[in-house]
């Protein structure tokens, strides 16, 4: 083989703590290396040109670039060598930046380690073989999971782009949290007035098929060709017939059902339509409150329904769809208020969550937009807002900032004044985070124009006192303890991943962080992608974000889907597992361990059992390869021999020439 | 009827339905060898139960296309279960004669006790005693003193899987400390343990007898120890290659090994290699609460995939 080695300085990023010329000089002595040079920026245009020229002039048939992480530039350099006529897998990258220069300061040791990493890359490259990708057709339909504002935006953009779009929403209406908000910051415009038209568009778009009251039961397949099973939960109402007239709800005698849309502020009927603008505007029965299911009597709804839509016999149903890409937009859920007993959460009726407060402010809410204390219905004359409840709180293992609470707290303080002008408003805060456009100005308005009393400090306790609530805490600006009397306490409860997110992530085979939020592929450069090809993220499911950011991400995800679908065929990654049927003993341990269902059982001609990899499904994770004891299954481009070459060199070098 | 007669009759009755029955036989009064019974006349060579030392399950994978009858002791039955669980053999082509086992004698131990054991003409076991007949003497030994090591820590004298039980199940006594030997070994200093394995591996002749005796080592001809593609081991006879082989073997048996001890018994150099397998088995027990070869319904932990393991902290939550 004729190998060329290019050691990149990355400006001073690498050269600052690694002697790149020395690394190149050492590499010149490595087996089969015919050229080794250092270069200021390997990825720059002249840097890449130098690689191409070297391949042509020196007749190289393998290239090693020692530079940054492959996540950053492996694709770049693969294209470079391909332009010079080499197979793109005849290239190896040694990461001497993240793994060396950025983590060690001792130049001598760094140079030693960088040299080792280059040597390892060379050793592996000597065993590399050209690999070629296969291509397969793309199913240009997209699945959007979750129809909050982010999912709606993604679905509309995809559908407007001409794609058939399937939307799966867990609740009986689309809209997500935004549909529950009264007004939105920083413009204080009516939330559902802005969102409503988009919800209607979603329902009416020819290209969109909406499954409400539905969840993902299973997803299989791979980018371009996913098979999804959707579980449509029984609503006991035939939605093909239901006109949304609401007669059933008017007559339903069971009036104590929990009202989830109103965040359990108030009660609703066992059969209900969540709110006037609901999409789809269809009734559904909550079986846990329905007298028919509880006591086997009643059936009033069935009698009054003019179109005979009630169907007590309805069952969950699983439907299948095939799509080529998935946008996940399942949003967030607030933490359980009962976790915050010190603030009276779950203990006093007049301590509510921020989202409950939105419903109490909303004209379509359970109080018709009149502010009332849940305990006795009186109008509050003092409202205390506590921010960072379960956010930025290490004692709860929640270091994260929920992002939007500072802003909506200011908004809620402003709205409180417009509902009850003589009501006092107090906000206990840690810092105020208002970096968006017009956001800081908005906070100032709350403080100055709407005379909200901002107290910097944490609340230590909330307790009943003379029929009201006393909120006690520190004022860290004045350096004193302070106590404020409140009729109503609003907790800006931290945002966590939507309920069931972890389960969904496992089904979609995407990763999630410690809080359950889905992981993007790269925090800066691939914020919308996941590590599973063809699955994209939008909105607060990736981490708390406000409406503008959620909408932007919805559009971004749609853009990604359209870019993906702009090709007729996709190339499969040849770095997949492959079974050597001669060695395979047919134990099928690989089949059982493969997290992606990428292995199937086949019969060899002699009737014996063998494993076979479905190339387009295999993600190249390597789990099967470590399971197979006789190494019958190996990952292409990461074969045993390639890895052994690295390890063998490394162990030998460590024993022979350790610098210390 | 004595156990051997019961067994003989049971096999005789089933033989017509089977290609062959695997049991133990031969003329040596201290050791039996595997007996492949194809015809009724082969039944005459059946040996007495205390000599049923080897684990016949080792043959099952290579005979998997045949209809096989197999005699198993408690420990052997675990290998059968493990092979079945791993899909390496199929239950329908197997007929299992389960033999409750009082322990088997270790010929090496008898040799140590009796100078003229080499000329023994007969062996009988009665109520905890072993009578060894030689031309000149009749020696009487304590059964416990000549039982195989693994029998001393046996927890499953009764087969865990069978189609037919020969005789009565044996009441299971107090379960001895499972890993006392390992504890003692691990109490040694790192250096002492290192030296121990260096010395042990220096003596290993890399004959692969241990691997070949292992009922769960089914790769055989494709074992990575012999393979050039992929090329895991070289043919150098240095300690590192031999040690590497032993570690590979142990790793490939983690959570599969039933500790039948055949590897150690087969080793011509008498190396204590079961210790390494037992170490990994204990790890598996502690991490996954799993023991190989006990239950057909459970899934071996290394044959599954889960993103978060209960007892392995992969990341903080
Ligand atoms: C009290 C409060 C006030 C706020 N006020 C403002 C404001 O004034 N201005 C502003 O910009 N932002 C505000 N926000 C933030 C705003 O709510 C979010 O930015 C926005 O809701 C994020 O939209 P989303 O679509 O990502 O998630 P969501 O709104 O949470 O929507 C997610 C949707 O997915 C569905 N879903 C969840 N899991 C599944 C599943 N497994 N399968 C199918 N469907 C599923 C849910 O039912 C829901 O419909 C506020 C937040 C709170 C808590
Ligand atoms: S684990 Fe290995 S031997 Fe077993 S079926 Fe898979 S490839 Fe074949
Ligand atoms: S590498 Fe193996 S375990 Fe991983 S996806 Fe491919 S076949 Fe499945
Ligand atoms: S049987 Fe003994 S000598 Fe032979 S390879 Fe195994 S440990 Fe080494």
Describe what you observe in this structure.
Chain A has 660 residues and is of the alpha/beta class. Chain A has five domains: 3-131, Rossmann fold; 141-233 and 316-332 and 497-565, FAD/NAD(P)-binding domain; 247-304, no CATH class; 337-493, FAD/NAD(P)-binding domain; 577-636, Alpha-Beta Plaits. Chain A is 30% helix and 24% strand. Chain A is built from 19 helices and 34 strands. In chain A, strand 8 (183-184) and strand 9 (189-190) form a beta hairpin. In chain A, helix 7 packs parallel to helix 16 (547-565) and helix 13 runs parallel beside helix 14 (439-449). Chain B has eleven helices and eight strands. By secondary structure, chain B is α/β, with parallel strands linked by helices. Chain B starts with a helix and ends in a 29-residue tail after the last helix. In chain B, the strands form two sheets. A five-stranded mixed β-sheet of chain B has the order 2-1-3-4-8. A three-stranded antiparallel β-sheet of chain B has the order 5-6-7. The model of chain B has no long low-confidence stretch (mean pLDDT 90). Helices cover 32% and strands 12% of the residues of chain B. Chain B has two domains: 3-104 and 148-165, no CATH class; 180-316, no CATH class. One iron/sulfur cluster is lined by residues 576-577, 594, 596, 598-599, 613, 618-624, 635 of chain A.
Which overall shape of chain A is indicated by the principal axes computed on the Cα atoms? globular
Most extensive interface: A-B, 26 and 23 residues
Kindly give the count of domains of chain A: 5
Strand proportion of chain B, as a percent range, falls in 5-15%
Question: How many DSSP helices of chain B?
Answer: 11
| Estimated share of beta-strand residues of chain A | 15-25%
- Ligands (ions, cofactors included): flavin-adenine dinucleotide, iron/sulfur cluster
What is the helix fraction of residues of chain B, given as a range? 25-40%
Large-scale geometry of chain B: globular
Strand order of the largest sheet of chain B: 2-1-3-4-8
Enumerate the spans of chain B where pLDDT stays under 50 for 5 or more consecutive residues.
none
- How large, in whole angstroms, is the Cα Rg of chain B? 21 Å
Radius of gyration of chain A: 30 Å
Number of strands of chain B: 8
Oligomer: heterodimer
CATH class of the largest domain in chain A: Alpha Beta
Overall mean pLDDT score of chain B? 90
- Kindly state the mean pLDDT of chain A as a whole number? 95
Number of domains in the coordinates of chain B?
A: 2
């Amino acid at each position: 083989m004729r190998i060329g080695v290019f050691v990149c300085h990355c400006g001073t990023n690498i050269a600052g703590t690694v002697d790149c010329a020395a690394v190149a000089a050492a590499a010149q002595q490595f087996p089969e290396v015919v050229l080794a040079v250092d270069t200021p920026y390997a990825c720059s245009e002249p840097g890449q040109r130098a690689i191409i020229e070297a391949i042509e002039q020196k007749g190289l048939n393998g290239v090693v670039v020692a530079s940054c992480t492959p996540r950053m530039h492996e694709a770049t350099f693969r294209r470079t060598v391909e332009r010079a006529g080499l197979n793109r897998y005849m290239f190896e990258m040694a990461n001497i930046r993240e793994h060396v220069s950025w983590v060690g300061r001792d130049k001598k040791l760094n140079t030693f380690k960088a040299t080792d990493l280059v040597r390892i890359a060379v050793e592996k490259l000597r065993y590399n073989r050209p690999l070629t990708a296969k291509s397969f057709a793309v199913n240009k339909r997209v699945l959007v999971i979750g129809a909050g504002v982010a999912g709606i935006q993604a679905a509309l953009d995809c559908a407007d782009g001409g794609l058939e779009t399937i939307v799966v929403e867990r609740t009986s209406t689309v809209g997500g949290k935004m549909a529950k908000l009264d007004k939105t910051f920083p413009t204080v415009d009516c939330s559902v007035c802005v969102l409503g038209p988009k919800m209607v568009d979603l329902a009416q778009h020819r290209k969109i098929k909406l499954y409400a009251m539905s969840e993902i039961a299973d997803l299989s397949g791979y980018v371009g060709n996913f098979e999804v099973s959707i579980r449509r939960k029984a609503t006991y109402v035939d939605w093909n017939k239901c006109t949304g007239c609401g007669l059933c709800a008017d007559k339903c005698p069971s009036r104590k059902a929990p009202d989830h849309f109103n965040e359990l502020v108030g009660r609703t009927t066992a059969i209900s339509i969540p709110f006037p603008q609901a999409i789809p505007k269809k009734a559904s029965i909550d079986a846990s409150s329905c007298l028919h299911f509880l006591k086997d009597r009643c059936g009033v709804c069935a009698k009054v329904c003019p179109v005979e839509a009630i169907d007590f016999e309805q069952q969950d149903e699983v439907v299948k769809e095939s799509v080529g890409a998935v946008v996940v937009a399942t949003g967030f859920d607030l933490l359980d208020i009962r976790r915050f007993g010190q603030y009276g959460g779950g203990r006093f009726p007049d301590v509510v969550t921020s989202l409950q407060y939105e419903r109490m402010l909303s004209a379509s809410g359970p109080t018709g937009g009149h502010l009332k204390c849940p305990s006795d219905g009186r109008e509050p004359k003092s409202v205390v807002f506590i921010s960072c409840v379960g956010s930025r709180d290490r004692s709860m293992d929640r270091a994260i900032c929920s992002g939007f609470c500072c802003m909506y707290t200011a908004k809620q303080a402003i709205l409180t004044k417009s509902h009850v002008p003589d009501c006092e408003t107090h906000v206990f805060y840690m810092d105020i985070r208002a970096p968006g456009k017009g956001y800081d100005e908005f906070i100032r308005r709350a403080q100055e124009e709407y005379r909200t009393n901002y107290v910097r400090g944490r609340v230590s306790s909330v307790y009943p006192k003379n029929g009201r609530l006393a909120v006690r805490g520190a004022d860290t600006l004045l350096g004193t303890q302070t106590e404020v009397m409140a009729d109503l306490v609003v907790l800006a409860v931290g945002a966590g991943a939507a309920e069931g997110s972890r389960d969904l992530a496992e089904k979609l085979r995407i990763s999630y962080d410690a809080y359950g939020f889905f992981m993007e592929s790269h925090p800066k450069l691939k914020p919308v992608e996941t590590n599973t090809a063809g699955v994209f993220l939008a909105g607060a499911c990736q981490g708390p974000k406000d409406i503008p950011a959620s909408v932007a991400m919805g559009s971004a995800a749609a853009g990604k889907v359209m870019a993906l679908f702009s090709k007729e065929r996709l190339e499969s990654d040849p770095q997949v597992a492959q079974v050597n049927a001669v060695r395979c003993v047919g134990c099928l341990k690989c089949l059982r361990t493969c997290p992606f269902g990428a292995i199937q059982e086949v019969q060899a001609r002699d009737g014996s059992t063998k494993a076979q990899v479905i190339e387009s499904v295999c993600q190249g994770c390597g789990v099967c390869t470590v399971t197979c004891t006789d190494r019958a299954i190996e990952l292409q481009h990461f074969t045993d021999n390639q890895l052994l070459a690295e390890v063998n060199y490394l162990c030998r070098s460590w024993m022979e020439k350790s610098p210390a | 009827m004595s156990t051997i007669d019961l067994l003989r009759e049971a096999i005789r009755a089933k033989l017509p339905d089977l290609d062959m029955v695997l049991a133990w036989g031969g003329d040596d009064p201290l050791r039996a060898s595997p007996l492949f019974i194809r015809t009724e006349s082969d039944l005459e060579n059946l040996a007495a139960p205390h000599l049923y030392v080897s684990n016949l399950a080792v043959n099952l994978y290579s005979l998997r296309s045949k209809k096989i009858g197999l005699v198993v002791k408690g420990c052997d039955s675990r290998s059968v279960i493990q092979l079945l669980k791993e899909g390496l053999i199929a239950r329908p082509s197997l007929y299992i004669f389960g033999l409750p086992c009082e322990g088997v004698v270790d010929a090496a131990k008898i040799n140590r006790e009796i100078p003229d054991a080499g000329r023994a003409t007969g062996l009988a076991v009665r109520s905890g005693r072993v009578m060894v007949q030689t031309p000149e003497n009749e020696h009487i030994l304590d059964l416990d003193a000549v039982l195989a090591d693994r029998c001393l820590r046996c927890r499953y004298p009764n087969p865990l899987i069978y189609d037919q039980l020969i005789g009565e199940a044996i009441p299971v006594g107090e379960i001895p400390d499972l890993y006392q030997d390992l504890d003692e070994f691990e109490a040694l200093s790192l250096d002492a343990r290192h030296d121990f394995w260096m010395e042990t591996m220096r003596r290993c002749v890399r004959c692969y007898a241990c691997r070949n005796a292992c009922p769960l080592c089914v790769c055989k001809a494709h074992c990575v120890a012999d393979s050039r593609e992929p090329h895991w081991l070289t043919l150098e006879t240095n300690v590192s290659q031999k040690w590497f082989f032993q570690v590979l073997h142990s790793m490939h048996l983690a959570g599969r090994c039933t500790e039948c001890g055949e590897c150690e018994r087969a080793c011509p150099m008498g190396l204590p290699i079961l210790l390494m397998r037992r170490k990994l088995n204990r790890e598996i027990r502690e991490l996954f609460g799993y023991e190989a070869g006990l239950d057909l319904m459970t899934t071996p932990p290394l044959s599954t995939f889960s993103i978060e393991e209960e007892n392995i902290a992969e990341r903080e939550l």
